[in-house]
TrEMBL record:
Coiled coil: none annotated. Residues 3-49 form the Mos1 transposase HTH domain. It comes from Parnassius mnemosyne. InterPro entries: Mos1_HTH, RNaseH_sf, Transposase-MT_Hybrid. The lineage of its organism: Eukaryota, Metazoa, Ecdysozoa, Arthropoda, Hexapoda. Pfam families: HTH_48. One of its GO terms (molecular function) is nucleic acid binding. This is Mos1 transposase HTH domain-containing protein.
Length: 206
């Protein structure tokens, strides 16, 4: 489909009160790799919702931009989605687009930024999750039965392996994240032979 035809489809779906996200999903399902990136869909949907009627590009005075095109935006998006840990310099090398233009596309068109993956406890099985819920429910019942003394009689304990080395630093885990994407996570795993078990106990009673 031509650009103007795709924009006409976006305009029509906007009239049906569809969100930018749903419009983009519909286009991807229909057009596959030929679908425009989400940033393009969101920009045109916003224009149409503000009252724009034309699907033609507006005439701009001055020197035209040769890098901030829809094709280049899609190139950058495809490269980043294939490897979210890729650097801007590497994206520029792969796509043949200048470093500064890649920066502008990522920030202004794709609304992406680099964030560090957040450490979370190791992945739990369904049975382990159920056990945690059951234990929490039992403790809640005990607390409700004797709120005054429960916290002073309650002893909590946690343990963790402290590894001698961590093969992946925080800097290495930095990945590209879209505006609506969740923060990436990485699970704590046994990463080295040398490690020490640390156990910590706590109570409100002095």
């Amino acid at each position: 489909m031509e650009k103007n035809e795709i924009r006409a489809v976006i305009k029509y779906l906007c009239l049906k009160k569809m969100s930018s996200k749903d419009i983009h999903s519909d286009l991807v399902e229909t057009l596959g790799d030929s679908a425009p990136p989400y940033s393009t869909v969101a920009r045109w949907a916003k224009e149409f919702k503000l009252g724009r009627t034309s699907t033609e590009d507006e005439h701009r005075e001055g020197r035209p931009s040769t890098s901030l095109t829809e094709d280049n935006v899609k190139k950058v998006e495809d490269v980043v989605l294939a490897d979210r840990r890729i650097t801007i310099r590497h994206v520029a090398e792969v796509t043949g687009i200048s470093y500064g233009s890649v920066q502008r596309i990522l920030a202004n068109e794709l609304h992406m930024k680099k964030v560090s993956a957040r450490w979370v406890p190791r992945m739990l099985t369904d049975e382990q999750k159920k056990n945690r819920v059951d234990i929490s429910r039992i403790n809640l019942e005990k607390f409700q039965a004797d709120q005054e003394n429960f916290l002073f009689r309650f002893v909590t304990m946690d343990k963790t392996w402290i590894h001698h080395i961590d093969p992946e630093t925080k800097q290495k885990s930095i990945t590209w994240k879209g505006a609506s994407s969740p923060t990436p996570k990485k699970f704590k795993v046994s990463s080295s032979a040398g490690k020490v078990m640390a156990s910590v106990f706590g109570t409100l009673k002095a």
